[in-house]
Specification:
By secondary structure, the chain is mostly beta strands. Helices cover 0% and strands 53% of the residues. The chain is built from no helices and 11 strands. Strands 2, 4, 5, 6, 9, 10 and 11 form a 7-stranded mixed sheet that branches. It has a 4-stranded antiparallel sheet with strand order 1-3-8-7, with no helix packed on it. It starts with a strand and ends with a strand. The model has no long low-confidence stretch (mean pLDDT 94).
């Protein structure tokens, strides 16, 4: 059974930085691709950042230039670094990953979410 666990959330000041971690445990063959999503009250869930099998990344316009997604395959961990945090970054952040032995048998997993609150 695969589980994704996010950590690193909390209360931060505007202009500060934060790094979130997502670690997969259980039977891990390969993290094919992963992404970070967030959802604020009254808002739709949105993709923040995505990293592909070949480590190509893309970002939402709202965080472009401020966010960096990366991965450490040896640790089965995906990171999200956000710099110059803004009030509108406040949300619950969720880790998503596609995991399987090859690209033909991938399964989709979600973490439980971690709260990020940006406030002075």
């Amino acid at each position: 059974q695969v589980q994704l666990v996010e950590s690193g959330g909390g209360l931060v000041q505007p202009g500060g930085s934060l790094r979130l971690s997502c670690t997969a445990s259980g039977t891990i063959f390969n993290i094919h691709a992963a992404g970070w999503y967030r959802q604020a009250p009254g808002k739709e869930r949105e993709l923040v950042a995505h990293i592909m099998f070949g480590d190509k990344t893309n970002y939402a316009d709202s965080v472009k230039g401020r966010a960096t997604i990366s991965r450490d395959n040896a640790k089965n961990t995906v990171y999200l670094q956000i710099d110059n945090l803004k009030l509108e970054d406040t949300a619950v952040y969720y880790c998503n990953a596609q995991i399987g032995s090859n690209w033909l048998n991938l399964l989709d997993y979600w973490g439980q979410g971690t709260q990020v609150t940006v406030s002075s």
